[in-house]
Amino acid sequence: MKITILDGYGANPGDLSWDELKELGDVTVYDRTRPEDTVAKAIDADIVLTNKVVLGRREISLLPKLKYIGVLATGYNVVDIEAASERGIIVTNVPAYSTESVVQMTFAHLLTITNRTEHYAIQNRNGRWSENTDFCYWDTPLTEMAGKTFGIVGLGTIGKRVAQIALAFGMKVKALTSKSADALPEGIEKVDLKELLASADVLSLHCPLTPDTRHMINAEALALMKPNAILINTGRGPLVCDSDVAKALEIGQIAAYCADVMTVEPPKADNPLLRQPNAYFTPHIAWATREARIRLLNIAIENVKAFVSRCPQNVVNP
């Protein structure tokens, strides 16, 4: 059985091992694959693993041996599910492997704004504190989170865990969710979008990207938010309209935007958000702790084993 990994570098830049997968077949690992090279690299494969390389209807139609697609991520929008199903190709994903890491990044971004530890660390390496008259100084606002309102869009596995941490900080938690109010964990108040936008001191996005949620944070939504609000996006880049968020930051409509994801990745150099001093970005690494990547590879390999054993798991297509 031939197994091809189209973009292995993202999940495993060399610090982890594919050896367990190699016990299941003839494995070829490509660090990266350009769109125009996808078919050529996967032409003989029975099994293809992909993270961000697209397997659309065209690619699937040109891969006659393909029986299984394993997505090395939770989101599987890189695969044309309908086309795969028509061919009887099993598609799987890796759910819930990065929950703790994404939650950790969410609060790392929040603490960047409320405590500004990096700002002070840089200043003090350059002698600012050593030159100070008093025993302490601060030149940025410092904010206590207890008592503030933490708004969450989406109460899936990650959203619920974020809510737990926010509650532990002493924050009030409100959520936009399809779950009934009676089904929510204690301490979480269900509200509609308008109330969430108007009341949140912190608004964190943890919902899937769908036609309904694309650009849900746009000029109209931002106009309802508090001028001291912090917007956090560790979900999907297109949940926000980049130009509208940039404008809101420029005119002081919100206080800060923190994101681990962008609409286009890597972002284009002319993205207006990159020019905003109150926009803070990490390069899509919330999922990339070593611990999370180990879980990712383990689950992905178990998915392949289950497929080979004719008992597929984590299947995302009908």
Characterise this structure.
The protein is of the alpha/beta class and 318 residues long. It has helices at residues 19-22, 38-42, 57-61, 81-86, 99-115, 117-125, 157-168, 193-199, 219-222, 242-250, 290-308, and strands spanning 2-5, 26-29, 47-50, 68-71, 90-92, 149-153, 172-176, 188-190, 202-205, 230-233, 256-259, 279-281. The strands form two sheets. The chain has a seven-stranded parallel β-sheet with strand order 8-7-6-9-10-11-12, with helices on both faces. α5 (99-115) crosses α7 (157-168). The model has no long low-confidence stretch (mean pLDDT 97).
Task: Tell me the radius of gyration.
Answer: 22 Å
Name the average pLDDT: 97
Residue fraction in strands:
5-15%
**How many alpha or pi helices?**
11
- Succession of helices and strands: EHEHEHEHEHHEHEEHEHEHEEH
- Stretches with pLDDT under 50, minimum 5 residues: none
Largest sheet: 7 strands, parallel
Structural class: alpha/beta
- Distance from first to last alpha carbon: 24 Å
The spatial strand order of the largest sheet comes to 8-7-6-9-10-11-12
Shape: globular
Share in helix? 25-40%
The count of strands amounts to 12
Which helices and strands, and how do they pair?
Blueprint: E1 2-5, H1 19-22, E2 26-29, H2 38-42, E3 47-50, H3 57-61, E4 68-71, H4 81-86, E5 90-92, H5 99-115, H6 117-125, E6 149-153, H7 157-168, E7 172-176, E8 188-190, H8 193-199, E9 202-205, H9 219-222, E10 230-233, H10 242-250, E11 256-259, E12 279-281, H11 290-308
Helix pairs in contact: 5-7
Question: What tags apply to this protein structure?
Answer:
single chain, 318 residues, alpha/beta, 7-stranded parallel sheet, 5-stranded parallel sheet, 11 helices
